[in-house]
Design brief:
Layout: E1 4-11, H1 18-36, E2 39-46, H2 53-60, E3 65-70, H3 76-85, E4 91-94, H4 103-115, E5 119-126, H5 135-147, E6 159-166, H6 167-175, H7 183-190, E7 193-199, H8 213-227, H9 230-260, H10 267-300, E8 307-312, H11 314-330
Parallel strand pairs: 1-2, 1-4, 2-3, 5-7
Antiparallel strand pairs: 3-8, 4-6, 5-6
Helix pairs in contact: 1-2, 1-4, 9-10
The structure holds uridine-5'-diphosphate and magnesium ion (MG).
Magnesium ion is lined by residues 96, 98, 100, 204, 209.
Keywords: Glycosyltransferase, Membrane, Transferase, Transmembrane, Transmembrane helix
InterPro entries: Glyco_trans_2-like (IPR001173), Glycosyltransferase_2 (IPR050256), Nucleotide-diphossugar_trans (IPR029044)
Protein name: Glycosyltransferase family 2 protein
């Protein structure tokens, strides 16, 4: 039997690019069959779209595909997990629906992973990010430096979800049921042999990016709280340092009063100490709160997502529905 490639496509309000993506999908399917002899199966995950994008795929897609509609917007990271749960290909490719991920790069990655049996993941790294010098870039670099500090695995910068993996890598990812998902971290944590290729994403076709600054900040915090204790350690070390200095300073004042009789001057130093320590206290409380909230989300042990419906082309429908109900009953 021919080997199979599953292509997972999470989308949120991408109606403008449905026709374009369906054309790309047809092209990809043909090339993948010709060059690598792989059958393709597309899995679209509707991550709570409020437009009619999901239904539009039904009109434009040909070939073998299914559509998993989630009950609301769970976020791209979780939508990808939903896709993984409903795929069983020998290889799994992740692609964006907005046409920023191109056929050429996808073929290149598939070629590499098939050529080397030791390789379990090939991922695309944005080459256009490295050159830009902006404040955001410095923050991003600082972020990766911090989150990778003292880890046994490294989370690569500028690598997104444009990846191809083997079925055993996909199986490993399915086991990671983190509620607050940070995919980049999960890919790195999983291990295996991975290879990177450089790519320049195409312009977005219609619609707009779903990443606002606020969302990026929230997402970075989630990354931290699920992958790193470094921020907590830094604040506690700093706190300890300040406490030691304060203690020494106290002894100095005490000695001065005892031996020279100078009364305590220094209203400014007092207020500085109060402000610095007060601020630090609040920051640390907030940070601890983040970690507690993260722990609470995991402890609730809710399912990662809720599926509203599964539809698709002829053969896929029955298989996927059967698989889904099997999963629902056996957990
Ligand atoms: N997406 C999603 N759920 C979300 C946000 C985004 O499924 O909550 C999808 C989106 O439709 C697109 C992909 O994830 O197919 C990448 O999103 P986007 O293009 O906004 O990110 P960017 O390319 O700007 O990093
Ligand atoms: Mg995009």
């Amino acid at each position: 039997m021919a080997k199979r490639l599953d292509i997972l496509v999470p989308f949120l309000n991408e109606r403008e690019s449905v026709a374009g993506f369906s054309a790309l999908a047809g092209d990809l399917a043909v090339q993948v069959k010709e060059r690598f002899g792989l059958e393709t199966h597309f899995v679209f995950i509707d991550d709570g779209s409020t437009d009619d994008g999901g239904a539009l795929y039904g009109e434009h897609m040909t070939g073998d595909w299914s559509l998993i509609t989630l009950a609301r917007n769970f976020g791209k990271e979780t939508a990808i997990l939903a896709g993984l749960d409903h795929s069983e290909g020998d290889y799994v490719l992740l692609m964006d629906a907005d046409l920023q991920h191109t056929v050429d790069v996808a073929l290149d990655m598939i070629g590499r992973i098939m050529a080397d049996s030791e390789l379990d993941m090939v991922y695309a790294v944005r080459s256009d990010r490295a050159e830009t010098r902006s404040l955001g870039r410095y923050f991003a670099n600082g972020f990766y430096w911090l989150i990778n500090m003292g880890q046994r695995y490294e989370i690569p910068a500028n690598a997104g979800d444009f990846r191809v993996m083997t079925s055993r890598f996909a199986a490993a990812l399915r086991q990671l049921r983190d509620q607050r998902r940070f995919n980049k971290g999960l890919y790195a944590w999983t291990g295996f042999k991975q290879e990177r290729i450089l790519y320049k994403p195409a312009e977005r076709q219609g619609g707009e990016s779903k990443w606002s600054r606020r969302r990026l900040i929230a997402f970075s915090l989630e990354g931290f709280t699920s992958f790193s204790v470094v921020p907590l350690r830094m604040v506690s070390l700093f706190g300890t340092g300040v406490a030691i200095l304060g203690f020494l300073y106290g002894i100095k004042i005490l000695l001065e009063v005892l031996f020279t009789g100078v009364s305590v001057p220094g209203y400014p130093s007092l207020i500085v100490a109060v402000l610095v320590l007060g601020g630090l206290n609040l920051a640390l409380t907030g940070l601890v709160g983040e970690y507690v909230w993260s722990a609470l989300s995991e402890a609730k042990n809710r399912p990662n997502y809720i599926v509203k419906s599964i539809t698709g082309s002829h053969t896929a429908t029955a298989v996927q529905t059967a698989k889904a109900s099997r999963k629902a009953t056996h957990g």
